[in-house]
Amino acid sequence: MELRQLGHTDIRISPIIMGTWQAGKAMWTDIDDNETRKAMRAALDAGINTFDTAEVYGNGHSERIIAEALADVRDRVVLASKVFSNHLKYDQVIAACNRSLKNLKTDHIDLYQIHWPAGTFGHPVVPVEETMRALNDLKAQGKIRAIGVSNFNRQQIEEASQYGAIESLQPPYSLFWRALENDAGPYCVEKGLSVLAYSPLAQGLLTGKFGPGHQFAKGDHRAGHRLFQPEHYERVQAALSQLRPIADAYGISLGQLALAWVTAQPNCFAIAGARNAEQAVQNAAAGEIRLKAADLEAMDRIGRTVTDHLDDNPVQWQW
After folding, report:
1. Does 57 participate in catalysis according to the annotation?
2. Alpha-carbon distances, residue 186 vs 56, 76, 132 (angstroms)
3. Does residue 15 lie in a domain region?
4. 57 in a structural domain
């Protein structure tokens, strides 16, 4: 898999990134630590060199599983983690980073990101200047190599950029969720920021595995995802039926088609989770797919049959 540049850094990352929210177990069901570790090794062997996590994923459990799976091959891996919105004061950022370093069993994190803007979820409002000061100090100490943000809009990225170099944005982005294109996306292209798209499979919808009337197990956060609600779900199923012939023509799965669409967008990488080794290998294969211009245009039109009916709220879940 051909590696790409992260922002303006010398860090090279795979177009498909392994996401590890599910590895934390919280808000997910039927996650097995042993299978997760196998999936991480399979992802690495298949060409994925970048693994994205966060302190809040299972209160550090995701980070610890990454360490168990990959600490012995640290020199081959790019690690990205995130500090949560309740830890954005100077001392809290420093402490959170140190915890993540310990969890990950490493002396540095390649990309350290602000997970959500200050004030989110009722957490304290902290000036971004203070948070960035902590991140700049961590960078100067060699504990992190690059700074990124997640779930920020254009205005918030511009403000943070006044206080330090921002290399990436991690937003929700997929064929079925495209608010990015109307806000921060053009700015990222203009400024050379990498877009690390999370939920590129629309929480699994774009794999086609959820048919009409699907019911999630108790505790699965996807039950509250807006695209799974009745007012959108029928349009989602109709769009999937139009995408299947395109995937079939390439001899790939719907999920691989969706990932390839994301990585074909300007500056975009796709963060995809995996419950087992087979899923990890399938995700990695999407990094080698090159879609024809005509198919990209057709997919764009199909995706808009879903996204044109969404409002401007960038948050996917009904929290």
Report:
1. yes
2. 29, 32, 23
3. yes
4. yes
